Amino acid sequence: MGTIKERKRKDGTSAFLAEIVIKKKGQIVHRQAQTFDRRPAAVKWIDKKEAELKAPGGLDRVKKTSGTLGDAIGRYTEDITRIGRTKAQVLRAVLEYDIANIRLDELRSTDIVDFARELRGNNERAASTVLNYISHIGGVISVARSAWGFDVDRSVVQDALSATRRLQLTAKSSKRDRRPTMDELDKILEHFQRIRARRPSSNPMDIITAFAIFSTRRQAEICRITWDDYEPDAGRILVRNMKDPGDNQGIDTWVEIVPEAAHIIAMMPRRKNEPRIFPYSTDAVSAAFTRACKMLEIEDLHFHDLRHEGISRLFEMGRTIPQVASVSGHRSWQSLQRYSHLRSTGDRFEDWPWFEKLTPAR
């Protein structure tokens, strides 16, 4: 019933995965696993668990009180209807690791710390990325205990986070201050226009890039907004499911559309049976921008930096925090305090020649 598998960690040490699998009529009815640093500990664990399972009613007791972390993740993704794309990717990735096979009632903070070490590797993932993984696991555990009655100690995540911070395995992401230079924007837009000249049916990345700056919208939001949600006379647009750090599901939010962004929307053709203004894939937009920067040898510039550029521009034009928030959609003005060092220096996009060049072929 129990097996032990040895595998090598990236740091050269050995790990021993002890696993118990029970089948009935060829179907797996129970599985539990635990990873150990030493084989004798793995053997001892298997002996103890097999004895518990063989006791009268042992299997029923175990099945009622717990499942694996992987079981909880599976149920979480099925029951929670609106999960962000990044969170969904992270949870799918967790299923590929040994920690997913550990029963929740046996999950220890040391297991999570070991998982963090494995993720971190030789700086293969940033400490902020590892923090996201553990935070998302914590969210699953909280729901599994409160909503589904899984026997799990929620403190294991907090204890693990405390330890991983001290071990420098996790850390909050630093605020990016990268802004594109006007020369970089020229190169990027010229590159995208050359592509459109060769392939007129390709995504209008030049227009999308400019809109991202002036609207301060994220790429997923750009690809989601619809004509019905746009009120040109009121100078506003409804951004549905806008990302919010305090709400995993996001909130539908009205934001101001500045004249430059409205001008770009006015250039977009309305397509039959297509409700979206920018009917393109978020992944395609991201990939195209990343490829362009790599080809043009523009270092460390991300699509999301265009939002930062747009917000910085508004402050440099003399807007107050509430006025900028009406465009960016920030519900917490505190989030915009990082821009307080910017002074009113004018609009560097004034008389920008690209406005005329961006008009798409009708």
Describe the structure.
This protein is 47% helix and 14% strand. The protein has 362 residues and is an alpha+beta fold. Strands 1-2-3 form a three-stranded antiparallel sheet, covered by helices on one side. A three-stranded antiparallel sheet has the order 4-5-6, with helices on one face. It starts with a strand and ends in a 5-residue tail after the last helix.
What does this entry show, briefly?
The chain is an alpha+beta fold and 362 residues long. 47% of the residues lie in helices and 14% in strands.
Strand order of the largest sheet: 1-2-3
**Parts with pLDDT < 50 across at least 5 consecutive residues:** none
Radius of gyration: 26 Å
How much of the sequence lies in strands comes to 5-15%
Count up the helices.
15
Order of helices and strands: EEEHHHHHHHHHHEEEHHHHH
Output mean pLDDT. Answer: 87
Instruction: Tell me about the largest β-sheet.
Output: 3 strands, antiparallel
Distance between the termini: 68 Å
**What would you call the shape?**
elongated
What percent of residues adopt helix (DSSP H or I)? 40-55%
Number of strands: 6
User: Helix/strand-derived class?
Assistant: alpha+beta
